[in-house]
Amino acid sequence: MTGVHRIAVVIPARDEEPLVGRCLESVLDARRLTEARLPGVRVIVVVVADSCTDATAAVARSAEGVTVVETDAANVGLARSIGVETAVALAGGADGLWIANTDADSVVPRRWLLEQVRLARLGTDIVVGTVRPEFADLSPEQVRAWRATHPRGRANGHVHGANLGLRATAYLAAGGFPHLAEHEDVELVERCLLAGATSTATARCEVVTSGRQYGRTPGGYARHLRTELVPATRSPESP
Fold first, then answer.
1. What residue ranges define each of the domains in the chain, with the CATH number in brackets?
2. What are phi and psi of 133, to 5 degrees?
3. Which of 61, 65, 80, 163 is the S-S candidate for 177 at Cβ 3.0 to 4.6 Å?
4. Is the pTM here over 0.90, yes or no?
5. Which DSSP helix (H) or strand (E) runs through 146?
6. pLDDT tens digits for 91-146?
């Protein structure tokens, strides 16, 4: 079944008061464009404020039409799961529902949801989008390394929770997000593929995310930027 009648954007957030407002501005802009271009399609936005000690939840609640759930899970996989569960309930079920995932420190392009729906209607179950760090957060050497290893417009197929969409039915068939502190997005996609879902990688709607060097967990994207990005471009003979 390729029909998409509803879209749920799920955003986990942990102490993201400075950035969540910017994220939601971009998501709501994408929602307005999508609902204007696709009459009858409703977009739900759910923010899961997880173990926040700042005003993340209050900032999110100030955005029009955003559902905010607060939890003390301190676990991004569980937070994403809570967000999807909430979204499925708000949508009245999983049939015809598309789940678009991003992060509170990220900014999505206006056509982000339209591109995911386009691919879904062509038959794919999962859309793996590209992510690039905010260059202002990186050193000049890191920016050069990024550009050398990530040709613009080329989908690399790396799974990022900041730019990931999938059918709710495929999500449920795979058992949902595992309750992991990191790499829950990669594990979910692997489970979906094992369950028979199809996947498409695209670079058409790149998401820009924080280039922070120290994240909420020891590993993940922040560690990659800090320890792996520049060495990946050096030859064995380089100092």
1. 6-233 (3.90.550.10)
2. -75, 155
3. 80
4. yes
5. helix 140-149
6. 999 999 999 999 999 999 999 999 999 999 999 999 999 999 999 998 999 899 88
